[in-house]
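Let us begin with a simple case.
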Amino acid sequence: MNKKHPVLVFLKAQLSAFTGGILDYLVMIFCTEILHIHFTISIAIGGIIGAVLNFSVNRYWTFDDNNASKSPVGMQLVKFIFVVAGSIALKSSGTYLLTNWLKLDYKITRIIVDIIVSLSFNYVLQKYWVFRKPKLS
């Protein structure tokens, strides 16, 4: 059995999240600063675009040691959509609240919220629910 060390899986997940997060963050800034869309909506737009990259990388690289890529993509995608929806809601509302309470730029509060949501919500749900190794009958 080719089981990878949990730390390696965690690091791969963080690299995947960072890559998707950079794309997400840049789209958010573009939508807010160039297109003049409110940052809470821009977070949703960037989140959806970053999620496409993140799902693909996680399915075929990060969690592949768990045979995630051999699981039916449909159910993983449905689960992933629920995680992304929750993540976007947490990031949008958290960024909005911190921006208003702390009177900081949304670009700064977004990074703070991203770190918290990424480690405590996204990683846990993706590892143990979305890309979980299927139970053998």
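The second case is a distinct protein. As before, the sequence precedes its structure tokens.
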Amino acid sequence: MSTKTKFILITLLFGIPALILGRQIWPPSPMMPVPTPTQFPFFAFLAITEATAFGSGIAFLILGWPLVSKIGGQNKFFSRLVFFSIAWYLINWWPHDNLHVHNGEDLQGLLYIEYSFHLTMIIAGGILAYAFFTRILKSK
């Protein structure tokens, strides 16, 4: 079976349950407004996209290390940081968005969400940008 096929199967294996279970794991806050019929398809599209990203992040964790380790060269620690940064960027959207809906208007909960997700994504973005620039500079 090709890596592409494995990636798709793993994505579906984790993405479909994520889509189905998101609101069961994190029930919406009673303080959250209900989307209008016009808004609902847009929220549904986001939920499908986030669950798919979650599944592909799991697939990346399972299948991606051999490729990332080749790119990283001798610095295995930095290669691991890049690997987990990519996975985090894919995986985080599903719990992140569901936690926002579950949290409602609780500002303390919002701070926890913002620091847990946004701050770690900023760090991961910095790691990826650094990796990109060092890789480009080495190729010149």
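The chain has one domain: 3-139. The helical segments are 3-25, 40-63, 65-72, 76-91, 93-103, 107-139.
Keep these points in mind for the review questions at the end of the chapter.
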